[in-house]
What we know:
The chain has 394 residues and is mainly alpha-helical. The protein has helices at residues 14-43, 48-60, 62-76, 80-95, 103-117, 120-130, 133-136, 145-167, 173-190, 207-212, 215-229, 232-244, 249-268, 270-277, 279-297, 303-311, 313-331, 337-367, 371-393, and strands spanning 6-7, 141-142.
Amino acid sequence: MINMPKYSNLGKSYSYIRMAFFYAAIFTMIGIHLPFWPVWLEAQGLSTTEIGAIFASSVGIKVFSNPLITHFADRQGSRRPIMITLAILSFVTFYLFGLTNGFWQIMLVTVFFFAVWAPLMPLGESLAMLGDDFKKNKPYEETNYGIIRLWGSLTFIITAIGTGYILTGSSIDTIYYILLSSLALVVAVTFFLPATQIPKANDSHFTPITVIKDRQFILFITACALIQSSHSVYYGFGTLNWKAQGYSEITIGWLWAEGVFAEIILFMFGALFVKKIGPLKMIILGGFLGTIRWLMIGKIDGIVFIVILQALHAFTFGATHLGAIYFINRKFPNHLSASAQGIYSTIVMGVSLGIVMFASGKLYGVFGAKAYYAMALLAAGGTILGIFLLTKRR
């Protein structure tokens, strides 16, 4: 008989607080970079095509850096020293943006920056799920991941809104200095991360290859990639679509905030959901509600209906992501956890999202809001794969 893991108590583990600060610091940077970095790039004289290429390179480098660095982390059996090094290198590399001049210099620094920045998230996910149990020789307790991760989402909202106010009437260079300051915060936080040590991966294989040879993992990654990439039209063109429907910038801002708040609420109770229905059913739920969300948002108007559909972000993104993190944690031994998280981050939150985002631009340009129907097909495909995987595991 297999005993289900217990969920560790937030108040009993100092590692929870330290990991919460890590996510808050990481998403402070993301909350500034995602909405405002294109503004800085445009001020440097880059065209929209060049800005697109810059962002494409930041996704593309993950394919190489994430597997290499997470493999090294699994071989070392530790996370914190590597994360400290990556955070320092991220700060130093980002500083170089202030010395760049022109597209190619910015492109070169971008590639180096994301090569060291991108692996921080999967390493952090792996460390969050490990907690302090190994160094304290406790019985295994599964981390209440949602309670830690929600601080990232909350900080994202606060930072994105706060930066908007700070930039009002300020120089464009303020964006660069605020981002550099946020990276200094990341460096400081990494020094206080849990010093969890796990058994090293001793096999001679490249650990990411060991992970992707698992057929169930391939089905899992594909299902998650389809569901998460189905958000592409929403991420890229949701604001434009709502503006076309006549909604003000203030209303649109609150709609975006609602989606993240809904995600936070789910994260608060995420461990209970996972314990009740399991990781795979969480992913299936996210895909199923994603199918409904994109079908409906593609053909209805009215603020009441939009508010209801925005609340589904808790499941379309939140439930899918929670299910994925817990699936990886239960599927793989700890000495492969960093590699598995690295592949998830690279494929699901990087490559697939980038490809579908590119295609979404074409779709939205031709079909407008009806482009959401294609996203519904992706979510439905992820749901079907999730159901297939669930039946195969029984």
